[in-house]
Amino acid sequence: MRIQLSPMSKRAAAACVLVSAVCVFTGCASAPVNTHGRSSFSRDARSYAASLTAADFASVPNATTALEAVRQLRPLFLQPRPGGYTARGEGPVIAVYINDMYAGNVDVLQTIPPGQIENMRYLQRTEAMTFAGSQTRGDGFIMVRLKGFSRRGTQ
Predict the structure, then answer these.
(1) Helix then strand then coil, % of the chain, to nearest 5
(2) pLDDT at residue 145 above 70?
């Protein structure tokens, strides 16, 4: 048994197919995709938000310590995602590493003039496990690289 469609029904069906096709093609074409299949825009935005450069620190000349600069530039560095500390009823523990060596908590940033910093990165606990292993202590991690430091030591 064949169903006969009126000319109006045929136009409506064709319009639906056309609109659906346009939506699919524009949706797929609008997001840039890197080789790993993830949106490169979100990855780039995330890496930008999780790092500071010497130029960023220079943009806050009124900051006398790295901690003051971080409070102005990236206050979320000092507020890690809720984790185990929430269940313990404690405040978050943020571990600071300077030139790949553990230096202490965020209070250490009060001892560093912003002009001495080459770059700074913030890592969530899961990201830090690849750097420091599963026995890491902290809910967030700030990695500081000072100017004039190379992996083999100071220049």
Answers:
(1) 45, 20, 30
(2) yes
Residue 143's nearest CA partner among 110, 91, 102, 112 is 102
Asked if 53 and 119 touch (Cβ cutoff 8 Å), the reply is yes
- 3 C-beta neighbours (distance < 10 Å), count: 5
Query: Tell me, what's the pLDDT at 100?
Result: 87
Sheet order of strands, 51-53 included: 51-53, 117-124, 140-146, 94-98, 101-104
**Beta-strand pair 94-98/140-146:** parallel
pTM for the whole structure: 0.63
Considering the domain architecture, whether residues 72 and 23 belong to the same structural domain is answered as no
Domain that holds residue 37: 7-49
